[in-house]
Amino acid sequence: MAGTFSPHIIQAMDPASGPQLRARVLGLDVGSRTIGVAVSDPLWITAQGLETIRRENKRKDFAKLADVIIEYQVAEIVVGYPLRLNGAEGTQSEKMQGFAEELRKHFKLPVHLWDERLTSREAHRVLKEAEISIEKRGKAVDRLAAMLILQSWMEAHA
């Protein structure tokens, strides 16, 4: 897979006359059973949720991520970084550091860890306020959390 994924910026028009298209970024909310997935739009305005990956094993999980990376021509990956409310790292933070390093080695892309504190809680709140049923909420929360993580990262790096 090395060499298949390379960061790039595509200019749609002269930067002085209009918006610049950028390489897409993949946002991940990684859990033990699922991976919430989102991708940036080419202008880095919105994060769009994709199908949540039901985790099986590393080989199959990475194959599914590879499909997304190729389809959307992803140049960078943002992984939600679970910190404690006081900002301290914990066991889950260490696991995500390891996961991020595996992504870097496997896909040869920059991988960023991004504070995900309260994103799942915010996702649940948004879905509840939208009066989404509990069953549908459970299916959508990982995707929405990935969108919130990626949107926050894009806004900080725009």
Description:
The protein has 158 residues and is an alpha/beta fold. The chain has one domain (24-157): 2-Layer Sandwich (Nucleotidyltransferase, domain 5). Helix content is 42%, strand content 20%. It is built from four helices and six strands. It has helices at 58-72, 91-107, 119-129, 134-157, and strands spanning 24-30, 34-40, 47-49, 53-54, 74-81, 111-115. Strands 1, 2, 3, 4, 5 and 6 form a six-stranded mixed β-sheet that branches. Helix 3 (119-129) packs across helix 4 (134-157). The longest helix is centred in the C-terminal third of the chain and has 24 residues, at 134-157. The radius of gyration is 16 Å and the shape is globular. The model is unreliable at 1-15 (pLDDT under 50).
Quaternary structure = single chain
Number of domains: 1
Strand content: 15-25%
Number of strands: 6
Helix/sheet category: alpha/beta
Uncertain stretches:
1-15
> What integer value in Å does the Rg equal?
16 Å
CATH level 3 topology:
Nucleotidyltransferase, domain 5
Second-tier CATH architecture: 2-Layer Sandwich
Entry keywords:
single chain; 158 residues; Nucleotidyltransferase, domain 5; 6-stranded mixed beta sheet; 42% helix; globular; disordered N terminus
List the helices and strands and how they pair.
Blueprint: E1 24-30, E2 34-40, E3 47-49, E4 53-54, H1 58-72, E5 74-81, H2 91-107, E6 111-115, H3 119-129, H4 134-157
Parallel strand pairs: 1-5, 5-6
Antiparallel strand pairs: 1-2, 2-3, 2-4
Helix pairs in contact: 3-4
